[in-house]
Write a structure and sequence with these properties.
- This protein has 132 residues and is an alpha+beta fold.
- 24% of the residues lie in helices and 23% in strands.
- The protein is built from 3 helices and 5 strands.
- The protein has a 5-stranded mixed beta sheet, with helices on one face.
Length: 132
């Protein structure tokens, strides 16, 4: 009998990350590399950010708009290797970062997963910045 787990797409439509509007702006939650099982953490990080770009673009947003990153890390030892990837994708901005170590995560989950938070200033704040 053929093992269906090897031929199945690694991410079902229901579990794909999506941009959700919140009271404060937007959130792209549950972002991770689509084919994470064969990748090192640094490559998973890069693939996740590459996947975020078109998802955010659908809302006229970019990674420059991200104000906070929540990292869910299953492999803390490999995490420092991802720093150059963060510098690559966030070279002009410095979003705040929260890290959550999933210490006993099974190997069946991604080594790194992100929630990207985008705070949109209220209209009054925009007027104050413009000098009105």
């Amino acid at each position: 009998m053929k093992d269906k787990t090897l031929t199945r797409n690694t991410r079902s439509v229901a579990s794909r990350p999506r941009v959700v509007q919140t009271a404060a702006g937007f959130e792209l939650a549950g972002l991770y590399a689509p084919q994470f099982r064969t990748m090192e953490l640094v490559d998973q990080c890069r693939a996740a950010f590459e996947e975020a770009i078109p998802l955010l673009a659908a809302y006229d947003l970019t990674l420059r708009d991200v104000s906070r990153i929540v990292c869910h890390i299953a492999d803390a030892d490999e995490f420092p290797a991802s720093f150059p990837v963060f510098r690559q994708f966030f070279s002009n901005t410095s979003p705040g970062m929260t890290m959550m170590w999933l210490k006993d995560a099974p190997s069946s989950v991604p080594k790194i997963m992100f929630d990207l938070i985008i705070n949109v200033p209220e209209e009054e704040e925009l007027e104050a910045e413009a000098g009105f």
